[in-house]
Design brief:
The protein is an alpha/beta fold and 190 residues long. It has one domain: Rossmann fold, CATH 3.40.50.450. The chain is built from eight helices and seven strands. β3, α3 and β4 form a beta-alpha-beta unit. α1 packs parallel to α2. The two termini are 18 Å apart.
């Protein structure tokens, strides 16, 4: 059994479905795996794209779904309506802070600038010692290969310490990723 405390993960992912159907299928697989292990999801609160897929998959399975959405996005009617607890905040910064506090770890899935922003902030905060939660990246069909190459380059060039580069757990399988994250979380608690 994969366990986290609290029993939910913060998921960062795109507000679009992307160019390949495999992205949404990987998100559905992750959602079903979270349900199987009694884990809920904290996400960006919108019904669009991969965000809507993760929220819908977990909510339809009866799992806990907490959406955090800024008031300006909620006013546009972007809030996921089905089975999610929605918390409205006053800014994107407040959204990220709330998402950080509610999840026991972070999973980044394919997405755009917002996803990269959230992932890099989670890594930066871990680097600074502001949290010790596991940070996972689901590298669906090599989507994040260029980003990982950049991190490796920054490490070789002396801008990222190896210990900080190793904060990011990467896998192409949701199951392998969650097991590695749970192992890292357990080490942090001991």
């Amino acid at each position: 059994m994969i366990a986290f405390d609290p029993p939910r993960l913060t998921v960062y992912c795109g507000a679009s479905l992307g160019a390949k159907p495999v992205y949404a299928e990987a998100v559905r697989t992750l959602g079903r795996l979270l349900l199987q292990h009694g884990l809920g999801v904290v996400y960006g609160g919108a019904e669009l794209g991969l965000m809507g897929v993760i929220a819908g998959t977990v909510a339809e399975g009866g799992g806990e779904v907490i959406g955090i959405i800024p008031d300006f996005m909620q006013a546009k009617g972007l809030t996921h309506p089905a089975g999610a607890e929605v918390q409205i905040v006053d800014s994107m910064h407040s959204r990220k802070m709330k998402m950080t506090t509610l999840g026991a770890g972070f999973v980044a899935l394919p997405g755009g600038l917002g996803t990269l922003d959230e992932l890099v902030e989670a890594l930066t905060w871990a680097q600074l010692g502001l949290h010790d939660k596991p940070i996972g990246l689901l590298n669906v069909e090599g989507y994040f290969d260029p980003f990982l190459s950049l991190l490796d380059h920054a490490t070789r060039e002396g801008f990222v310490k190896l210990a900080h580069r190793e904060l990011l757990i990467t896998a192409s399988s949701p199951e392998i990723l969650l097991h590695a994250m749970a192992t890292r979380a357990a080490k942090g608690r001991s």
